Amino acid sequence: MGLTAQSSGVGVLREDYLQETAGTEGGLVVALAGNPNTGKSTVFNALTGLNQHTGNWPGKTVIQTRGQYQHGEEKITVVDLPGTYSVLANSPEEQIARDFICFGRPDATVVVVDATSLERNLNLVLQVVEITPRVILCLNLMDEARRKGIDIDVPGLADRLGIPVIPTVARDEKGLDELKNVVKQVAQGTPVPRPAQVTYSDEIEEQVAQLEPELRRLLRETPFNPRWVALRLLEGDETIANRIGAFLTDQGEVAASRSTAGCPGAARGSCRVVADCPVAADSNCGTVAGSLDGADSNCKVVASE
Amino acid sequence: MSIGTSPSAQWLQLNQDANEFRKSRGEALHDDIVTSIYRQAETIADSVVHVDRCDGRTDWDRRIDDLVTSRYFGYPLMLLLLAGVFWLTISGANYPSQALAWLLFGLEEKITLLFQVVGAPAWLHGMLVLGVYRTLAWVVSVMLPPMAIFFPLFTLLEDLGYLPRVAFNLDQLFRRACAHGKQALTMAMGFGCNAAGVVSARIIDSPRERMIAILTNNFVPCNGRFPTLMAMAMIFMGMDVASAYRGLVAAGVIVGLVLVGIIVTLLVSWGLSKTLLRGVPSSFTLELPPYRKPQVWRVIVRSIFDRTLFVLWRAIVVAAPAGVLIWILANIDIGDFSLVQLAAGWLDPFGQLIGLDGFILLAFLLGLPANEIVIPILMMCYLSVGSMLELDSLAAMRELLVRHGWTWLTALNMMLFSLLHFPCGTTLLTIKKETGSWKWTLWAAVIPTVIAIAVTFLTAQGARLLGLV
């Protein structure tokens, strides 16, 4: 609904400062992913009560935005990721979204889905549940789907995907209370969903099966899903390979020197790798890896336990 | 892999294994993975989605799209829509403008009386009332009503889903200019705020085309410049035709200016593609989102608060201190002239050459922090050099400008210069941040300025040569 004070003028320059706040102040962090133009920003605004720029055109949200809301006793920080059709890192936006879900370690990821074109939107959902099981599907634009005579078997969908599915009409704030409840449950891990995984060709599955046991052992102290990492290695995704490699190297060093005693706050929350300002860094140059290495090294204590 | 090997060594080994497998498979592997994901999505969707019957609604969407993106009707419809928005704005803003002016200048008398009652010194009254208050009153009465009408209307179009259709229409032109079709979307964003437009260029993947979009975003008038354009159009354009058509003429002039902005954008994009940023355009798919019923009430509320009052407030907070400064400069004399007169006098020969004057150029230079304050500063400059005039209506406004030698040509060149000149300070800083380069930031200031000077020089000299003024 038009530019806002935050998204224009000096507000544009202030973007970086907004990024650093999450993760450091406690509470739960929820990432908001979704295809372009599915009403992601509307969901964001409805959840946080903010008035971020929404508009009916794809590719509008290029700035990663954060907002907060209180749910019961929990303070929940919502990170609105750029709209993407996939998280295979084919473009800067896709990489930003993927990196945040993977390395930003949100407590839960909500994928906002356009109910009028479920099939296309499911591609993204299937990719996200490979990275993390803590996913909630927000089936938005239900009113539009109904008007077009599209009927979706919601329990059936939740069953097939193995994650919670919440139908919403974010513009009218319908279904949001339910969404908030489920977000809190998933973020707190009560229960952690067990999403169904995509089955690949026999040849690929065979290779994954070969790599996975080793990876499972290597990555057992990390949040990374071995199956997903195996697939990325097979694909030759160098960013992922390098970053996880660096992560493991740090871990080894700490184990060898044993110089650091256990980090008192070594729980998920305090050691979350905040992918600080990936947007700005990515789009300008390759500094994102640099800034994340620093963040990664904060986490080596967790891994060494 | 033996026990005791370090995790990083094991990791490297795993990487190697994976690499070998990939080499044996070649390119097909990525496609394989993607295909499997798509197939699974299809299977799931098929099992849970039931389409009752097509009741023709989607058909309706399509029919509108065929019309608004049609080869023959696309552009005319676009221009008509834009003209309609401007016409509604201008004709609708006139009456509230007069009413606000009457109210605020009525208040000025009361304030002056108050100053006299408490026995405030004349210089204080001069600075605060004649300098600051008067200018702000003018800003509010001339800028507020058009903004309060224009911003909600424009935002409604955005909410409806019209902007991607505009991008679709313009795509071919951008392609011919060797630029990216998505640049039209960044332009649409620039209509709100050029700094936001520059940031939105991130949706363009190719660095070359992204840079072109950043460097040319300035050529669409932003929130801060629309009020200037509208005020100029309302005051000077269409004054010679019957009053019924005045609004139409003024709206036509603004549409013309937007067109000039788009043409310059295309030409500069093309020029950059042939010189500094050589290359071929990349292709992309643009999705036309469904039309959605706009959230009318929220649009109105948000566009009033986030755009109208925001812009107005920025104009006020920057213009008020500037008012004090200018009043002081106007009252410090060196020899026979005040500092303002000296500065303007120094700029004047050049200003005259491009159909403006020294004061206007001074206002543009001092207006670097925000485009909103160019007109207020100009008013202050003119008022500070003597002519004590009651600015209680647009006609009086026109009178003031005419006394300073304004003609329709001055107004036109003022609009052109506003449209084409260097970006505001915030936008320049954003460009620095986005490109990470002072060199490109400098280009972003130099290119528009050179164009603005060239265009205004040509119109001024052309009009004088043809004896139009």
Structural topology:
The complex is a heterodimer of chains A (305) and B (469).
Chain A: H1 10-13, H2 15-19, E1 28-34, H3 40-48, E2 65-71, E3 74-80, H4 92-103, E4 108-114, H5 118-131, E5 135-140, H6 142-147, E6 150-152, H7 154-161, E7 165-167, H8 176-187, H9 202-218, H10 226-235, H11 238-257, H12 278-284, H13 287-298, H14 300-304
Helix pairs in contact in A: 4-12, 9-10, 11-13
Chain B: H1 7-25, H2 28-48, E1 49-51, H3 57-68, H4 74-117, H5 122-160, H6 163-176, H7 183-190, H8 194-200, H9 207-216, H10 226-236, H11 243-274, H12 296-331, E2 333-334, E3 337-338, H13 339-353, H14 358-366, H15 374-384, H16 394-403, H17 408-420, H18 425-435, H19 438-465
Antiparallel strand pairs in B: 2-3
Explained architecture:
The complex is a heterodimer of chains A (305) and B (469). Chain A contains 14 helices and seven strands. Chain A has helices at residues 10-13, 15-19, 40-48, 92-103, 118-131, 142-147, 154-161, 176-187, 202-218, 226-235, 238-257, 278-284, 287-298, 300-304, and strands at 28-34, 65-71, 74-80, 108-114, 135-140, 150-152, 165-167. In chain A, helix 4 crosses helix 12 and helix 9 crosses helix 10 (226-235). The N and C termini of chain A lie far apart (49 Å). With 469 residues, chain B is an all-alpha fold. Chain B has a two-stranded antiparallel ribbon with strand order 2-3. Chain B starts with 6 loop residues before the first helix and ends with a helix. The mean pLDDT of chain B is 83. The chains are: A alpha/beta (305), B mainly alpha (469). Chains A and B meet through helix 1, helix 5, strand 6, helix 7 and helix 9 of A and helix 1, helix 2, strand 1, helix 5 and helix 6 of B. Strand 6 (150-152) of chain A pairs antiparallel with strand 1 of chain B.
